[in-house]
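Quick entry between incubations.
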Amino acid sequence: MRLGYLHFPRLPVQRRVRETPSLTGRPVVLWADERGVQRVAFASSAALKAGVRPGQSVAAAGALVPDLHRLPYFPAEEAQALASLGEALMVLTPGFQIDPPEGVWVDASAAPLKGGEAPWLHAVLALCLQQGWVGRGVIGSERFTVQALARFTTDAVSVVPARGGSRLSALPLQALTRALGPGGVEPLAGLGLTTLGEVAALPAGAVSARFGHEGTMAAQLARGADDSIFTPDELPEVLHEAIALDWPAEALEPLLFALKTAVDRLCGRMQGRKLAAVRLTVRLDLERVETAEVSLILARPSAQSKLLVELIRHRLTDLTVRRPICALAVTIDEACSDDGRQLNLGDAPNGEAALEVVLSRLQSALGEDALFGVELVDTHRPEAAWKEKRFALSSAPERSLGWWESAMPKAEAVVPVKGREAEQLLERPARLLRAPAPLPAELTPEGALVSLSLLGRKRRVTAMFGPERLAGEWWTEHPYARDYYRVVLEGVGPLWVFRDGRDGRFYAQGVFD
Amino acid sequence: MGGLELTHTNHGFLTGAAEPEVAVARAAELGHSALAVIDDDGLYGVIKAHLAGKERHVRVITGSTMTLIGDGALPVPERAADHPHRVILFAETATGYANLCELICKSRLAHPKGEAGLDWQSIAERSEGLSAMVPYPDEASRVAKLAEAFPQRFYVGAIRAFCAGDEDRLHRARSLANELNVPLLAHTDAHTATRSQQPLQDVVTAIRHRTLIAAAGRKLFPNAERTLKSTAELLQLFPDLPEAVHRGAELSARCVFSLDELKYEFSREELPQGIDHPQQYLKLLVEQGLVFRYPRGIPDDVRRQIHRELELIEKLDFPGYFLALWDIVRFAREKGILCQGRGSAANSAVCYALQITSIDPVRMGLLFERFLSQERREPPDIDVDFEHARREEVIQYVYGKHGRHRAAMVSEIISYRGRSAVRDVGKALGLSLDQVDRLAKALDLGDEVGPFQLRNAGVNPSDLKVRQTVAMSQQLAGAPRHLSIHVGGFVITHSRLTALVPLENGRMKDRTVCQWDKDDLSALNILKVDLLGLGMLNVVARCFNFVRSHGGQALTMATVPPEDDQVYEMLCEADAIGVFQVESRAQMNMLPRLKPRCFYDLVIEIAIIRPGPIVGEMVHPFLRRRDGTEAVTYPSEDVREILQRTLGVPLFQEQAMKLAMVMAGFSPGDADGLRRALSNKRAEMLLPQYRERFIEGCVSRGYDRVFATKCFKQFDGFAHYGFPESHSASFALIAYVSSWQKRYHPAAFCAALLDSQPMGFYAVHTLVDDARRHGVEVRPVDANASDWNCTLEGPPALEAPADAPPAQWGKNGPVLRLGMQLVRGLREDSCRRVMEARSRGGAFSSIGELARRSRIPRYELTRLALAGALGSLSNSRREALWEIHALGPLEEDDLFFGLPMDTQDVPLPKMGSRERVSTDYETIGLSLEYHPVQLLRPQLDKEGALTAARLQQGKNGQWVKVGGLVIVRQRPPTAKGFTFLSVEDETGIANFVITPQLFDQFRRELTGTALVLGEGRLERQGKVVNLKIEHIRRLQVDLD
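Done. Structure below.
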């Protein structure tokens, strides 16, 4: 089989420069975290010229090049970019296989149809260039030979006949590193061998006796022998089912049959792959090329056809369409792995399903962001002491309340505070404002709080308890220092307010129920 | 009635931010007459607070916060300082203090270092003389029995810290107090002295929890209220509980114990039959020692001095101390462990007679008052150096003899310094590890770190985290980080040490240490002995052994021929690589200028290159006077007597003391007080009082005011570390002996140095190059010839001829065979197996045979091959590797164990000379084939660079270039930012001097480069040649 290998030197840098043209010609490094140290993974030509080297710490590179641009390196994104390139190349090749971070294998069987291997390779590289990638390519029959020549020679296009291992002899020993790993190359380097030709010249038996399988493999590869096979990458498959109705539907009932069929098929496919839908879209094709779409976000991933149909049915009930429906399509926009669920005694999946329907309807009706769970955050700053999290039905109730439970003795929560009106309040309000709201205050000359203005009206303070002092985060751009009071306002009730130590103003933080 | 504040200090190791002294000062400011120090499970900060309290008139109450375990609770690590079950104990009386110490010892010694915990029963058993308080409300069932054990002396803590839960906690405290029928005691749980220390408190908390400060959340205090408060503030805070505030005064009044009451009794030695008193035994031993020291009769002045010393020792009741020291030294001598006393002990004729020290103080005219004074009534300080490698034997002897309840090692508080502070603060604030590393290095290079230096180091100076790291590191610097073990300090007592000082386990096996450092012990007049390890004594002992075992003389330090002209001749030529104390770049620059010609010159040479004489501007006047270019004058005959030997320049602490006595009329005790003030960390604060007294005293005795002022200014220099004469003399003796060994037995000396690495200033390649320049033949590591250590081969180790030129000293002498310990990656165990196999079955004839007989792992065989140590078994290193790879399994018993699986020879590429040299350096740290710079010589010749040897012949002011390998890089604090590089090539060493401006300009070349080419003007001062660099760059090396 004839194979092509496309090598794009420093492709991650190329991609970043392409996305941000202002980086062209400037010293840029992409860094990856390596046990707490940011190390250079790739560097642009300008950075390399200034002495920056892959593997160096970013700080060391920064010391060499003060105006260095430092960008994080995301291997998954680079692999995705290569995959996209591979898909784009499918106009010229029946299959491709990505070789991150800088290479793509292509099936060159189709080359004779495009005027021969060299012209075909030129066309492939031209297409790559169109996509924005600069690279070089080699066509040959043995994978190692093709890859090593592409990576370690500078010819833009090269065609190697079958069993063209002799072309490898001048290549450096490091060409074996990707195949054998550093540990496989080091013993050979220790013997003073510097080229693949030198490795190839070693007697096969001697190499095998000394370095075992790895040595044998090294010698074979250096001679150009490589029987590894090309396996094209599978295309990412979109989970999508469409059904055209025999005649346009004007009511829900006939539509539901088609819907159930489509959903059943989708769920079957998902179950086969152990996937569950997280988000899906139902598209209705109306007469006169109009369409209507319904999106669903599931509270809990599911591959249960009955549930999905039920949810979609509810949404369709609320949908008003002006024309008859000709076809429908269901697409799984997001799926996740489905490892199944072991029911416990007392679990009521039916009830949960009903709840799920309600939640899903709420989510669909109010918007994705309107329904969320709450998670406590370990900080003293009240407005930052919680955060939103995706709402999900948990299979078992939370056993631990986390830090709050361990930090605060249980007795505290139940011992009531006696005394004045405000003292009877709990220390924390039930409802926190999203952000502190300024409260214009009236103070006595001695500084005592008399009234606070709320919703445009001045309201007298009838009771006040505090302060509780919270201060910190001096290490951020926004440190805080506040004295908190539990204040009872005439005609309003108890509020949790604080006086900001920096501007001296009062702010509302929460409301006691 | 006032309140009482309780505080944690920063001596609780990352628990609190308040320095004990600052906490006391703050307590005084706030009007408190007492302050209780309550560090966790220890008394770490109490002495410093006590001393500060004496100055500020604040009584420090000794306390500790004890961790309660039992009822299923586990011992907690030190870092879990927020463990909920705790009880604070306060020492009311001396008995209470002893009980507190015993309890801390029990808690600490029962657990590994860093952990503590005690059950309530143990505390209850030792409640006498103690008060107790639970700082936070605990479960009644847990503390009820404890409360019973402290009738009328138990409190429940009441805290209001402006925090959520304050009122509930107070309510529970009230309930607990009611249930136990004990009173409440108001406190603030202070961790800081002032609110402004809160950021530092947050940082240390994050460091303690090993977390980012941004992720520390509620591990941090919610506000800055855990700080010391005045009684008025406390009353304001507890308007409903004034009695709980005033109860502090009640507790304070009951805690009458002061650390000044501690009585310490040194260990009593067992006395021989017929002798009733230690003093009598000491006299007997001294008499015997005098006969040994003065076989031709004891001089009268020695006799008088001995009589005076013994009288004082008896008066001060220190005979036991001397007897214990004598016993330790006796043990070492019996075991053949080389040892020698150093420091002020060398001022004592008794120590000399007991063979604790080796310098005759009477002959040297040393001042006994520097060692011991009646007025001072302070314990003597005797430091004894032992061969580094065998010191552990001595330490275990002391533990064994006195028992662990009576002997413990002194601890050393390891404090944050620039670099460590930056590392921990940077990590806590979330800088990446490489940024922290770079910042740490930048801060270490100098005190002033501005945007320029930060940018140069690769960090962004405008980054908030970087700015905060720099600022907080400066605040953290000086704070205790962890407790370590002092290099050799031992406390030995007659009664239970555990009732005097809290002890804990050391990280090292078989080490128990006390919680106080040497300064704390000294402040309480607790005697310690320093049993130190000295690498050079190893070298000296090994060298003597080499000489003796290789057919040479059997010598000891006492029998080395004294005052040998050839030795001084060698030193005058600055030929001192490897020699004790005078091998540094600065010392080698000084040697040709000072030209030592006798032992006392060496004493001066060692003392003069110290920050004290340099800052006190004593060096140049002394050299001018020695050269005869400046007249030596003395204001009086008395002064002449003191300063004559140092040509009128006070170089030693003893001279400052004598001058104070003679010129200003100080008593010996006052003079020692001046000496102590000079060597105190806070010398600048302590000296003014002495300055005035000294100058006025001098004037009243007829001395010129200007002279007196100048004289005192020179004393100021001692505040920057100076040597006592006795110490310098002790070191000079080792310096002389090591010089003698280098001069007459260069091969043995070099072998001993190599075997004692790491030590000294120079890497092994410099030591070996130096030996070869002196004619020593050095043979490579060879599996068929080398031992683990270096060995001597060939001709017997006779003394080098006195008339031989330096390059001939080692000629015709023994040959130095490098030891296998130089091979990196080879374990001692493997080497021993090779040696054993060799001694059993004779030399190896092939690599396979070596592998089969020694059974060492393949990796270590390859290390030997790469190091060229299989040269006698193979033609080249690569062929050896080829052969090793062909051997069958080596790691375990196998049918094909070590058998060659293939015998084909193949032509492998030959190693070039550069590659060989590079591999030599990588595997053994040196090359016998070429100096790396020799390989660059053609390139350097093209550049017009001189060799280091040619540089010596250059003219003053000549513009020259020199290239070489940087072997030493120094930036001493006294050099005002100047940097000194020692650059080695194949001919010798050149000295580069770099100005601060140039250092900033070429920082990268100067800090991260091994091979450099420098150019600049040659500066010559007699035989001393330096190159004042004006441009420097790195040398590129390509391996062939």
